[in-house]
Structures are given as C-alpha cells and as structure tokens.
From TrEMBL:
Gene3D superfamilies (UniProt xref): Winged helix-like DNA-binding domain superfamily/Winged helix DNA-binding domain
Pfam family, one: HTH_24
Keyword Transcription: yes
Ranges of residues in domain HTH arsR-type: 4-101
InterPro entries linked to this entry: ArsR-like_HTH (IPR011991), HTH_ArsR_DNA-bd_dom (IPR001845), HTH_MetalResp_TranReg (IPR051081), WH-like_DNA-bd_sf (IPR036388), WH_DNA-bd_sf (IPR036390)
Record protein name field: Helix-turn-helix domain-containing protein
Keywords: DNA-binding, Transcription, Transcription regulation
Domain of life, source organism: Bacteria
Record-linked PROSITE patterns: HTH_ARSR_2
Length: 101
C-alpha cells in the first residue's frame, strides 16, 4: 500500500467534477443541454422544476466542477457544457485506473 499525503492538483479539480455530478438535480440540468447548446439561467429554470435560486446554485456548482463554462454577453450569462474539460478529467481518472490498479 502506498502512503498518500496529498492529493495532486489535477485530482482536486476532478474531485470538484465528481461532486458536481453527484447530485440528481445537477445531472438533470447537465443532461438538458443539447449538443453545443448555450442556455441562460431562465432557460434552465423553464426546463426544470426547481426555483431560480436552486437552479442558480446548481449551475454554480456545475461551473465550479468544470462541467459547465459560462460567458457573459451584455446582461445575460450563457452556460454551455464544458465537454473538452470533462473528457480530459475522466481520461485522467481512467488512465490512473489502467496504470495503477
């Protein structure tokens, strides 16, 4: 058994992604995006059964975890699935599993 004293920085970010994906509401929000689609908070609220406050919270968690990225255009904030980052993060986990376990 290896003695692990610290988590690598890359794994801290992966941890945030798994936290973001670990909630059914956030999973439904993420799955509501179509390929390359950008949605505002109000559009996500309309497609959800959650309040605007709850959706805003979940979007922030998804963004912090790297699952979503945002862009402010005028007064609106658009969210989009951060596919490239999620693929890289999951690839890193799979690579570790393949090489170390």
């Amino acid at each position: 058994m290896k003695k692990i004293t610290s988590i690598p920085d890359a794994w801290t970010e992966i941890s945030d992604l798994f936290v973001a994906l670990g909630d059914a509401h956030r999973q439904r929000i993420l799955l509501s995006f179509e390929k390359n689609e950008r949605l505002t908070i109000l559009q996500v609220v309309e497609a959800s059964q959650l309040s605007r406050t709850a959706v805003t919270h979940h979007l922030k968690v998804l963004e912090r975890g790297g699952a979503l990225k945002s862009e402010k255009v005028g007064r609106e904030v658009y969210f989009q699935v951060n596919k490239d980052w999620m693929q890289q993060a999951l690839h890193n986990v799979l690579q570790y599993v393949e090489e170390e376990i």
